[in-house]
Amino acid sequence: IRKVVAQVAVIAAMIFSLVAVAGGILSPVDRSANECLAPELRFNVERLRVEHGYVCCKNEHYAEPRGAYDCDGACDPLAELEPPIIFYDSQCGIPLYKAPVGRSFEEFLTESHHHGWPKWLR
Asked: What's the superkingdom here (predicted)?
């Protein structure tokens, strides 16, 4: 099994820079809230650490937005890997998901692109 440290939440936060606060007012998030992340991030997401690390470390309001994983095969780092892929928590490194489960790797990629983020099956 090829172990891959995937920072799914960071990837998924690429286009999300505001969160709702009490009363429905939109407010900028605390951009310094990324200290909890692992020292090295994979899949070309290191550049997103400062801007979107809060999703992993201090995301108290929402999950990552739909469509943040949108990418065609040319830019998809998952498409280059051999299955199964184990995805790890970006803070503590424990295994979270394995893909594909119950379908082919191609079906996993297709469903992930359709939903806008990696689509997990139990």
From this structure: Eukaryota
Q: Which of 51, 47, 2, 9 is nearest to 30 (CA)?
A: 51
Global pTM? 0.52
Domain boundaries, the chain: 2-115
Q: CA 119 to CA 104: how far, in whole Å? A: 13
Q: Exposed e or buried b for every residue in 67-81, given b needs 16+ CB within 10 A?
A: ebbbbeeeebebeee
CB count in 10 Å sphere of residue 26: 8
- CA-CA-CA-CA torsion sign (111, 57, 41, 51): positive
How far apart, in whole angstroms, are the C-alpha atoms of residue 113 and residue 30? Answer: 29
Does the bond joining 77 to the residue before it have cis omega, within 30 degrees of 0?
Answer: no
Spell out the per-residue pLDDT of the chain, length 122, in tens: 343 334 444 444 332 332 333 333 334 445 556 777 877 777 667 767 776 676 777 766 665 556 555 555 555 677 777 888 888 887 778 888 888 888 888 888 888 777 767 777 76
